[in-house]
Amino acid sequence: MNSVLEPHLPPPNGKRIVVIGGGFAGIEFAKKLTSRDFQIVLLDKNNYHQFQPLFYQVATAGIEPSAISYPFRKLFQNKPNFHFRLAEVFHIDTVTHVLETSIGDITYDYLVLAMGAQTNFYGNPSLEKHTFPLKSTTESLVFRNSILKKFEDALLAKTYEERKKLLQFVVVGGGPTGVEVSGALAEMKKFILPKDYPEVDFDLMKIFLIEGSDRILSAMSPGSSSTAKSYLEKFGVEVFTNRTVAHYDGSVATLSDQSTIQTSTVIWAAGVKAVRIDGLRQEVYLPNNRIKVDPYNRVTGYDNIYVLGDQAVGVTAMPQVAQVAIQQAWRLAKNLNKGFDLAKWRLFKYHDMGTMATVGRNKAVAEIYGLKFSGFVAWFIWMFIHLISLLGFKNRLQTLINWAWNYFSYDQSLRLMINSHKEPTFLRSPSSKAFLQVASSQAKETKDGSRPSNERILATNP
After folding, report:
1. Is residue 180 annotated as a catalytic residue, yes or no?
2. What tens digit of pLDDT does each residue of 408-462 get?
């Protein structure tokens, strides 16, 4: 036990439950665990919860990052026996029940892993190096800066080909994130950016959506998928199915059919993998770092370790979406509130409440409890559900005001380039020798030789 750290965590009056990760699963579990027999310790590398479904709106200047973020300490300030620590967890010692973290060792009686997922580049280094993921607030801001910078650069482009490359956007992945990003970019092209850049020929701005399967939104019905595709095409988005991006060097995206697209921007929304933590037996890990759990969400072979959300795989595979994580968190918390008599516990059973995706103004698709909606009704349902899901009245009000302003004015007021003195190399012109020297020295400092992460470069997140 770390003699410096542990005094800052008061001795528990019962059992200590450590929760790693403050995403949907982590915060819902902590909120629903009401028994005073437990001390709850939440660990996260950020001091705030991020509402992931709206990252794309931050990226496309629809809402402010503060509107989708909420501090953990404020969320739980009135909860007894709760403690938050800003930390990263590196290793679990399952024998001594000790976590090795960035702030020292922390002991646990019970452990809940709710670390979520990260972008999956499927082992392709060119995609990892040059594409934009959207899995954090920081990455969303980096992308927002890049969009606006591309248009500033397009005004200065010396050749037609150079300007065309700057104004072509490729979105990879036809799930809800890819569809929503494509639709948001198309709305910016139609309603917003021409006001700011009247000198730009917007016929040059192209948006391509690339999907590896035979249709977009494959988790929804073929009818909803077809409707969403027609909405996108009416917005001018070119949808390619049965194709993937095999290689991207920062200038040319090469597809699986060997066709190419000249572009300086590729948004990667084509898959995720669970965040891996070391210390568990190798046999509990499944492909994409997911962990096998029993119907109580316990890790196979461990009596005091539970997994929730994107990291967990039960008897039947479930989608890596928020509603699964939330339902798992509720069930585990309710079970633990009853004590440790498994006879009183209920097995987890997933109830699919539906899926939805918005394409743009008055255009969305939704399937809720078997009912299918499209157009304005689906769009309104999407807005309402996402609005009430935000944490904090102020965040809901701020988002509602932004949405109302955008809707009635056909404009956005958040087109600000918030630059850092250190940006990823692919955001700067290759001609900047001084910057490349700095970037080179940064790259040498990383353990694996890859470019530093967006979080580390921008110093926005701890």
Report:
1. yes
2. 877 766 666 776 444 444 444 444 344 334 444 444 444 343 433 333 323 333 3
Three state DSSP letters for the chain: CCCCCHHHCCCCCCEEEEEECCCHHHHHHHHHCCCCCEEEEEEECCCEEECHHHHHHHHCCCCCHHHHEEEHHHHCCCCCCEEEEECCEEEEECCCCEEEECCEEEECCEEEECCCEEECCCCCHHHHHHCEECCCHHHHHHHHHHHHHHHHHHHHCCCHHHHHHHCEEEEECCCHHHHHHHHHHHHHHHHHHHHHCCCCCHHHCEEEEECCCCCCCCCCCHHHHHHHHHHHHHCCEEEECCCCEEEECCCEEEECCCCEEECCEEEECCCEEECCCECCCHHHECHHHCEEECCCCEECCCCCEEECHHHEECCCCCCCCHHHHHHHHHHHHHHHHCCCCHHHCCCCCCCCCEEEEEEECCEEEEEECCEEEEHHHHHHHHHHHHHHHCCCHHHHHHHHHHHHHHHHHCCCCCCCCCCCCCCCHHHCCCCCHHHHHHHHHHHHHCCCCCCCCHHHHHCCCC
Backbone phi, psi, residue 379, to 5°: -65, -40
Query: Average pLDDT in the 143-166 region?
Result: 93
Q: In what order do the strands lie in the sheet with 38-44?
A: 82-86, 38-44, 15-20, 110-113, 305-307
**6-45+87-119+273-344 is a CATH 3.50.50.60 domain:** yes
Marked catalytic residue, from 180, 187, 367, 423:
180
CATH of 125-270+354-409, one of 3.50.50.100, 3.40.50.1980, 3.40.47.10, 3.10.580.10: 3.50.50.100
Residue 170 has pLDDT above 80, yes or no: yes
Residue range 331-341, pLDDT digits in tens: 999 999 998 88
What is the maximum span of the chain, computed from C-alpha positions, in angstroms? 73
Residue type, 229: K
Per-residue pLDDT, 173: 96
Domain segments of the chain as ranges = 6-45+87-119+273-344, 125-270+354-409, 425-458
Distance, in Å, from the CA atom of 307 to the CA atom of 23, rounded to the nearest integer, reads: 13
